[in-house]
From TrEMBL:
GO cellular component: cytosol
The protein, known as: dITP/XTP pyrophosphatase
Lineage: Bacteria, Bacillati, Bacillota, Clostridia, Eubacteriales
GO MF, one annotated term: ITP diphosphatase activity
Reactions this protein catalyses: XTP + H2O = XMP + diphosphate + H(+); ITP + H2O = IMP + diphosphate + H(+); dITP + H2O = dIMP + diphosphate + H(+)
Known cofactor(s): Mg(2+)
Active site per database record: D69
Residue positions binding Mg(2+): E40, D69
UniProt KW Ribosomal protein keyword: no
UniProt source species: Desulfosporosinus orientis (strain ATCC 19365 / DSM 765 / NCIMB 8382 / VKM B-1628 / Singapore I) (Desulfotomaculum orientis)
């Protein structure tokens, strides 16, 4: 069975391929699709944006499509940056500016009010119109300064209490095991198996 993962992110493609290595499911990506035009992600939630991308990929390819959207939710900011995580500090997208803005907005917020989570919504859409949603979350808190050099985005500021490290200080193997996207991807495997049979 062939499926399309609506992304050009090599890390996401590899992560899903690794999870499906024993399932006789071939994972294609947007790199394999001629004439793909990016979908405007104007949904109000991560699930909305994932749905938009999955539906567009099904329509373009006729294959079962997967698409995800994810980001950071900070409780002291009412859930922001949320769906605007990648462009929190404006365009063009820039991790450094996003982190600086986050630190600035939280500068007077006490330690016990700095709770946050990474959230991922993953949608599977089929050519016959069925749609499935899986989600994953990782709880943590936002530090006052960056720690660690592995990872990207908000990883250097996102502290995971269970590991006493930021996401940017964790090994890739540990990060993939606990990550919001890893959780959502693992939950989708039984769905894909059921669609294959």
């Amino acid at each position: 069975m062939k499926i399309i993962l609506a992304t050009q992110n090599k890390g996401k493609i590899r992560e899903l391929q690794d999870l499906l290595v024993d399932e006789d499911i071939q994972v294609l990506s947007l790199k394999d699709i001629e004439g793909w035009e990016d979908v405007e992600e104007n949904g109000e939630t991560f699930a909305d944006n994932a749905m938009l991308k999955a539906r567009a990929a099904v329509e373009k390819t006729g294959l079962i499509a997967l698409a995800d959207d994810s980001g950071l939710e900070v409780d002291a900011l009412g859930g922001r940056p949320g769906v605007f995580s990648a462009r929190f500090a404006g365009e063009p997208k820039d991790d450094e500016r996003n982190n600086n803005k986050l630190l600035q907005l939280l500068r007077d917020v006490p330690e016990d009010k700095r709770s946050a989570r990474f959230r991922c919504a993953l949608v599977v859409a089929t050519p016959d119109g069925r749609e499935f949603l899986t989600e994953g979350t990782v709880e943590g808190r936002i530090l006052r300064e960056r720690r660690g050099s592995d990872g990207f985005g908000y990883d250097p500021l996102f502290y995971v209490p269970d590991y006493s490290r930021t996401m940017a200080e964790l090994t890739l193997a540990v990060k993939n095991k606990l990550s919001h996207r890893g959780q959502a991807f693992r939950k989708v495997i039984p769905i894909l198996k059921s669609l294959k049979s």
